[in-house]
Automatic annotation (TrEMBL):
Membrane topology note: Multi-pass membrane protein
Ranges where the ABC transmembrane type-1 domain occurs: 100-309
Region entry Disordered, spans: 1-35
Family, similarity comment: Belongs to the binding-protein-dependent transport system permease family.
Annotated PROSITE patterns: ABC_TM1
UniProt name for this protein: Sugar ABC transporter permease
InterPro entries: MetI-like, MetI-like_sf
Compartmental location: Cell membrane
This protein's record includes keyword Repeat: no
């Protein structure tokens, strides 16, 4: 039996191009109205983009420039070019990776809890009929409080000298020091962060709930779907874009957590985040070179987090808006 000859490279390339062309043909073409809206949106957002680039470009480029130098404000005349040594030092230091781990822990735990509680609050604000304005205002009040103020309030609440948390929780001694060890201190910081920012999560989810058609929910109810089935098969799938936006915004904000840590523990007992590490190197120790390198790494890690969240949800926002 004669062997079948493998296809030539030209044929393989032609077949690949044909498959790519078929995929392009399957993409829905935008209507004239959709293209007009896209162009209008680009023109409207262009001034803001230009201003943001002008405001942020110099600090970013300056930080990138300084990250290649050993530069301390205590001896500015000793500044010297060292290439990527600052990055190598940071990436090979256990403190950097420990702070990254603590930061990821803050982000994952707080965002997960806020998503659940925020969705419950959003359901209440969406469905409540009696005193709707009062209830919505009451839920959103914590988000209107300055983070530093809420941090001081929760620090006072968790102190064993005159706080009330130890007295409220069963099984906790009145003399228990929440800020004496890593785990309870991290929990206290998470509680203050969750209390402060859950209203923001609920506000974003409320906007998503408003996009879910009542007709679909009623149709599912007529078909005999239970409340749980309506939630998982009707409400949540149609809120996917809103959930992604809420998680994305809050995750990026939680990843850069600083205020609560600064107020409640000052980074002690292993509660330091990557943002606080940048602060210590730049502001407290005047190491602008290392601080700039850490800020660049923080910026890149924020981009990575955003990329992973967008890939995880796989939401086409254009389709979510009803285009195509």
């Amino acid at each position: 039996m004669s062997a079948v000859a493998p296809p030539a490279r030209g044929e393989e390339r032609e077949a690949t191009d044909n498959r790519r062309d078929r995929r392009k043909d399957k993409r829905p073409e935008l209507s004239d109205r959709a293209r007009h809206e896209q162009r209008l949106g680009q023109r409207l957002v262009a001034p803001a983009v230009v201003i943001m680039l002008l405001v942020t470009a110099f600090p970013i480029l300056r930080a990138l420039y300084l990250s290649f130098y050993t530069y301390s404000l205590t001896s500015p005349e000793d500044r010297a070019f060292i290439g990527i040594d600052n990055y190598v030092t940071a990436l090979t230091d256990g403190l950097f990776w420990r702070d990254i781990g603590v930061t990821v822990l803050y982000m994952v735990v707080t965002v997960a809890i806020e998503l659940v509680i925020g969705f419950a609050f959003a359901m209440v604000m969406h469905r409540v009929v009696f005193a709707r304005g009062i209830i919505r205002t009451s839920i959103l009040i914590p988000y209107g409080i300055i983070t530093v103020v809420s941090g001081f309030a929760w620090q006072f609440a968790f102190t064993y000298q005159n706080g009330f948390i130890n007295g409220w929780l069963p099984g906790i001694s009145d003399s228990f020091n929440w800020f004496g060890e890593t785990t309870p201190a991290v929990i206290a910081i998470m509680v203050s962060e969750i209390w402060k920012t859950t209203p923001f999560m609920s506000l974003l989810l409320l906007a998503g709930l408003a996009q879910v058609s009542d007709d679909m929910i009623e149709a599912a109810k007529v078909d005999g779907a239970t409340w749980w089935q309506r939630l998982w098969r009707v409400i949540l799938p149609n809120m996917r874009a809103a959930i992604m936006v809420a998680v994305l915004f809050r995750a990026l904000d939680a990843y850069r957590i600083f205020d609560n840590i600064f107020v409640m523990t000052s980074g002690a007992v292993g509660t330091e985040s990557i943002s606080f590490l940048v602060y210590r190197q730049t502001i407290e120790q005047f190491q602008l070179g290392m601080g700039s390198a850490l800020s660049v790494l923080l910026f890149l890690s924020v981009l990575l987090v955003a990329f992973l969240i967008v890939k995880l949800f796989r939401v086409d926002l254009a389709k979510a808006r009803g285009e195509g």
